[in-house]
Amino acid sequence: MGMPGVGKGTQAAFLRSGLGWPHVSTGDILRQAVREGTSLGRRVKGTLDSGQLVSDELMGELIVERLGQSDAREGFILDGFPRTKEQVAILDAVLERLGISLDGVLLLTAREDEIVRRLLNRRVCPKCQAVFHLENHPPESPGVCDDCGSALVQRPDDTEPVIRDRFRIYAEQTLPIAEGYRERSLLNEIDASGTPEAIAGRVREALQTS
């Protein structure tokens, strides 16, 4: 869990590599549906572009389907879900149905101005989904994906007005969830400032002591 752009996806990728569990990113699932022009993609495109949250009902459908797949039986890393109190209830019901429970919840934290800088400098490849950063991880050729040679783009929700609105939504709807997980003794707060590798080290330490 954490603010938009705090590095949830990057750290989930580190964990996936170390644990061998699937990285279940609801944002990635939805953005892929938009790229492919599926019925789901058409339903959520406008919501995603504006930085708003997709309905709890739809997110619940996605989670039920994804966590029921065979590769998630031994474990999984959730990224982007739950984000509302209603989604917490949905996740609790899905986990109860599957006969499993959460090992822990990681809350990544950083200053707003640092996150804004990260997001404004983020570029993505629309073809292979590689992610670059103009300051910390620039492409070898400006504006061109290192992996497939496609032109890099800025996500529609990576503009400052949308970023600031996403922060507001996070504070109103998602941050209270973290406090709920703290009350259930599941929450670990992680300082998400510095390099991705340094943050990954803090994540590993938190998992070892939880």
Name of the CATH first level? Alpha Beta
Tally the helices. 8
Query: How far is the first residue's CA from the last residue's CA?
Result: 16 Å
Q: How many distinct beta strands?
A: 6
**SSE sequence, one letter per element:** HEHHHEHEHEEHEH
Helix content: 40-55%
Shape label = globular
Question: Describe it for me?
Answer:
The chain is mainly α and 210 residues long. It has a single domain (8-106, 161-209), classed as P-loop containing nucleotide triphosphate hydrolases (Rossmann fold, 3-Layer(aba) Sandwich), CATH 3.40.50.300. 51% of the residues lie in helices and 10% in strands. It has eight helices and six strands; from the N terminus they run H-E-H-H-H-E-H-E-H-E-E-H-E-H. The chain has helices at 8-19, 26-36, 39-49, 56-67, 85-98, 112-120, 160-183, 196-209, and strands at 23-25, 77-79, 105-109, 122-124, 131-133, 187-191. The protein has a two-stranded parallel sheet with strand order 1-2. The chain has a two-stranded parallel sheet with strand order 3-6. Strand 4 (122-124) and strand 5 form a beta hairpin. The chain is globular and about 50 Å long. The mean pLDDT is 90.
